[in-house]
Amino acid sequence: SAAPAAGGAGAVPSPMTGVIDKVVVSEGAQVNEGDPVVILEAMKMYIDVTAPASGTVTGISVKSGDSVKEGQALLTIG
């Protein structure tokens, strides 16, 4: 049976309030820990939101132009 990925896979939260500039990955994509998954614009800076663990992107909750709050789930990694 498939076990969940070790080490913090799950929801990837926004590190701060801002606007989604770009979602870099697509649903079903394989990502490695540290890979950029979303680019967030906050206070005229662009921040790479990275995967907290390796796994497969199982859901994306945001799109370019969306306003997000700190801690809001951007996507999930399974």
UniProtKB/TrEMBL annotation:
Keyword Nuclease set for record: no
Any Pfam family from its record, for instance, is: Biotin_lipoyl
Q: Which PROSITE patterns match?
A: BIOTIN (PS00188), BIOTINYL_LIPOYL (PS50968)
- InterPro entries to which the protein is assigned, alphabetical: Biotin_BS, Biotin_Carboxyl_Carrier/Decarb, Biotin_lipoyl, Single_hybrid_motif
Task: Indicate the transmembrane segments per the record.
Answer: none
Q: Is DNA-binding one of the keywords?
A: no
Start and end residues of each Lipoyl-binding domain:
3-78
Keywords attached to this Swiss-Prot or TrEMBL record, sorted alphabetically, are: Biotin
- Entry protein name: Biotin-requiring enzyme
Organism of origin: Alkalispirochaeta americana
